[in-house]
């Protein structure tokens, strides 16, 4: 373990891999809308698959019981074929009637299909198509909204970079001004600063302390001009808002406002995607009321008697 850990650190904790790690985190954050939509879609797919799988497993088990029925095996010829054909429709009807609470409206739809193919193909089919198109439309619309929300996140990142550059510019302007202001305060005004610079230049000329005397003098002069000239151009107060504390406050307010707006927009988009579709076709309600209340159920004694 003592050898493995340094090796892992050497392999994966390298500076050249830092952009890749930062990029992966950025992609994870930016792709949040798509991941939420994918999670909602997979949840709905799993619910539908589980519902259909349980229903068809129960129907298959009932078919197996019918095939093993002793009375059915005693039938021959047309009576046997008729019993099998009747069981083909009666078994799903029985399963769906017994599991009406479990399968709900979806089970009643299948029961109506087995009872009357015309009702299913003529009335539930259009409803199914409308629901499918509406669902696809919702996911398509949500995907479009996710693209817009992702663009907003990218714009927020770029906006943050802009704020950072503005803060650096503000510091580059105000830090020299603060240093010069401290010098003036320590030396009792501009005259003291000029006297100190003149004295230092004279001593440097005589003693040859450094070769950067001229550059230092010019830098101090520029700092003085900036310090005294900056307020002169701030007639409307705009330059004052470039102070670092103003910039930091604006950045904080902007980040909070954008994050709040972004969360509200993404939550609203996800709620619109997940809201239930409660519309029903009026004509299909007749099928739910069981138009064939006295449907035939497998009774093999009757089948053998009727077909003799």
UniProtKB/TrEMBL annotation:
The chain crosses the membrane at residues 20-43, 154-173, 185-206. Keywords: Membrane, Transmembrane, Transmembrane helix. It comes from the Eukaryota. Residues 288-308 are annotated as: Disordered. This is Uncharacterized protein.
